[in-house]
Model the fold of this input.
Amino acid sequence: MTHTKQSKDNINPSHYKQGNIEVIDFILDQKLNYLEGNVIKYMSRYKYKNGVEDLNKARWYLDLLTGKKYTGNLQKIADKVGTEVSDALVEVFKERQKSDGLRMSGIGRCERAQWYSVKGYEQEPIEGSVYLTFLQGHILEAVLLGLIELSGHKVTGQQKKHTVEGVNGSQDCYIDDELVDVKTASDWSYKNKFTETGIKDDAFGYIKQLSGYGKTEGREVGYFLAFNKNKSTLKLCEQQLETDIDQHIIQLKDKMDSDTPPMRLAKGSTFGKDGRERLNMNCAFCGHKESCYGALTAVTKGAFTSYYVDQVAGSF
Done:
């Protein structure tokens, strides 16, 4: 193709005419589209015009072309995610060490269950399906944080340790310098428990746990990043933290020192129309339910097992 030369070559400058084939001729001959043409254009001229800036432009158009638009070092982030998944898998098969103290992850949970743990009561064996659920959560968290980092956000402070009144715990991370706890949730929990203003009906004590992490840095606000396992959607929930969490821990430690267990959960069980007392979900999944309630009768229907208190042999 012959091009008419103009002053200063503004239409077809020299950096497009290096070698035996002009860039525009190659693009037209190969019938490349706009995105493809721009990849070739910037790759062809980078040595003669803008250097790394042109390479970055070529990468940007290539990312658009392939549908993979991300920032950061993909391989480095992928390797980090792989290491975290590997560590989580190894952790699942490690022999469980018996814990005789309070942990930050438990300070908002049932005080009576914590008392049994601190006093050395034997827990029910954890089923393999529960370990698999924990592993699934760790894997999803690692992959999710990797994708967040690739999207251009700053992810730091993963598993940073905190201590409040002698109780230890490890946070999930900071995202863009904000304290964030990642939670994987069922579709029902995602819709009903996680809101834009925090968690509703916090049966598992997540707010107190996050407040403990925030206490060491004087934070008043933290965030829950909820991931819907069923639909792969995300929700960021701003959570006001309990700034007096240290006082709660002091009182909790006093209760753990007592020889008398704390009160049971207020709604730990309900009575059905047949007069039988059935444990609600939180107590049904507790590893200390038999120590707490005494004799229980298990009734399995489908995938769920209900536990009924033996009114004669049960503990009151």
Q: What stands out?
A: The two ends are 95 Å apart (CA to CA).
